[in-house]
């Protein structure tokens, strides 16, 4: 009798279950090993990595941010196509078409330079209300929010609201700022609202929704206490009032950030590593932060004065 035969005739060891003689005759193995209850089964060699709970936390849509800072993956062509289809189905195409006709290419949002890290970690720009709910002590610029729209993110079209930016720069002298150029798709969201003047004017009285609200940004005269008239060479893709606002509800994903501008070299060096995950490089553009330069650029389009298209 060889060693194999001797092993097969031995009694089953503890933790094994013996099979009947009929099963043995059919060629079934003599014993099936079952792990004891106090001994968890060994992990499969391929089952390494984060647990299922961790994967749900990392990739959950409500917490859509990279697992490691700066680890932002480029969406696949299929994902981009689905996103484009969703945009057409869920957005107001009249607004998007009108924006394209006027040559609008971006929304603009400015924030504190040190807040950019939080934005990148969160994977989105959040409204004031969401920041207060999800962060203990977020940096806030406007504690009053006289526009009564704390659920919304304040943006402008084509250029930053340099009046408000200049005011904040004077109030918070030790704070550095960054300007974000965003993709304009949020214009067509059904929840987006528009104000042809600063949204805080008259407690938000001029804030509107829909296509008519968007078109009011480009009227010949802007409402409100200041007499602002659209001049002949005013850029067609800029609202009549530079302080006109686009209010985007809840959040804007960081994937919508197209360009980032700074006005200090030290800020550019500091934020550059964090933007590498989005394949962006901060650009030094001090003129974009200066009210006089922005006003001149908006209100006098040299291309129109020379007979070119706006």
What does this structure look like?
With 310 residues, the chain is of the alpha+beta class. It has one domain (77-305). It is 32% helix and 17% strand. The chain contains twelve helices and 14 strands. The chain has helices spanning 3-8, 21-25, 52-59, 77-90, 93-102, 115-122, 128-134, 162-171, 210-215, 265-275, 291-299, 302-305, and strands at 16-18, 31-33, 107-112, 124-126, 152-157, 177-182, 193-195, 208-209, 221-222, 228-229, 245-249, 251-253, 257-262, 283-284. Helix 10 (265-275) links the parallel strand 13 (257-262) and strand 14. It is globular. The chain starts with a helix and ends in a 5-residue tail after the last helix. Mean pLDDT is 76; it is low at 2-12, 14-41, 43-50, 52-72 and 305-310.
- How many individual β-strands? 14
Secondary structure class reads alpha+beta
Largest sheet: 8 strands, mixed
Q: Beta-strand percentage?
A: 15-25%
The total number of structural domains is 1
Spatial strand sequence of the major β-sheet: 8-7-11-5-3-6-13-14
How large, in whole angstroms, is the Cα Rg? Answer: 30 Å
Order of helices and strands: HEHEHHHEHEHEHEEEHEEEEEHEHH
Oligomer: single chain
Query: Would you identify the regions where 5 or more consecutive residues have pLDDT less than 50?
Result: 2-12, 14-41, 43-50, 52-72, 305-310
Helix fraction bin: 25-40%
